[in-house]
Input
Amino acid sequence: MPDDTTPVLRGFLANHDPRWLSEDVELRDHTRPEPYRGRAGAGAWWTQFFGEVFADARADATRMTVNGPRASVEWRFRGRHVGSLLGEVPCSREVTIQMVGIFEVADGEIHRVDLYYDSLRLLRQLGVPLVIAGIPS
Output
């Protein structure tokens, strides 16, 4: 049985193009309260993160496990902070974080993405002041 999932994911991570997303895709960034639905919603999140907020953004896959239409992908994200993610002032710093995506692929398109990453590490790299339960950042 041919593996149709791997080329789709490699293409998507290489160019971040929302055309890899299905019209009914659901993207769950597990640092956010609500999912992004549809190519327009999920594509807007992906385009914002991988271009508007972080310039020269790269997703270098370090591990991929494919089981038919489902896959988990771990990648090292790199980008330079040039836009606001949560209202912070862009700092032009280069950031690097590990990210993991759980994907469902069918008919050459991504239908679901569950995205996991350490948002606290990201915010610290951006120099965002954090106060959690009285603990200084």
Observations:
- The mean pLDDT is 91.
